[in-house]
Amino acid sequence: MSSPQRADRNSAASTSAVTSLRERKKAKTRRTIQEEALRLFAEQGYEATTVEQIAEAAEVSPSTFFRYFPTKEDVVIQDDYDPMLLEAIRAQPPDLPPLTALRAAFRTAFESIGPEELDQMLARIKLTTSVPALRARTVEGLFATIELLAAAMAERSGRDPRGPAVRTLAGAVLGVILTALFGWVEQDGRTPLLVLIDEALGYLEAGLPI
């Protein structure tokens, strides 16, 4: 006869396995919706593509689409990179200077992104720079990213995340990252994104010499 403790452990393990499977299925559905949306946008244009068409291509209902993406804009704007970057920043040794830690964190985060995902990122950035509605939503996301970077840097240094020094650093970092992203789009992805980002951060780390 199994003990109550063993039964509890088995039950907990079973619940964890079910939860993990559910999360994987949700991630797969989310990824499929986004992939099909980007394919349709490339084939027939952003404005001409409807949520219903995306849902049909992804083999989900429109209501399921809206559970994952509140609007059509969100299927382009949303990604998982901010949490991934935050985790990479927190993993850096505490004695590293702020920009050195950020540069290493970006390397860690972007090295984990595969070629197919990078192609999707390139397509999404092209859309956000060419569709007015997406440009407006992108600006909102930029403010959120500045706050995330500021919070991460403040956590490392014990400084106030709302202080001008921390926010200025976060804004400067985001500025050079945007420059790298725009260059990547202009080159149509010929130069690896990580190379462009690391070069831009290195330029900032050196004090922006001209």
Automatic annotation (TrEMBL):
Keyword field: DNA-binding, Membrane, Transcription, Transcription regulation, Transmembrane, Transmembrane helix
DNA-binding region location: 50-69
InterPro entries: Homeodomain-like_sf, HTH-type_TetR-like_transc_reg, HTH_TetR, MftR_C
Transmembrane listed as a keyword: yes
Region (Disordered): 1-30
Keyword Membrane carried by entry: yes
Name of the protein this chain belongs to: TetR family transcriptional regulator
Source organism of the structure: Microbispora triticiradicis
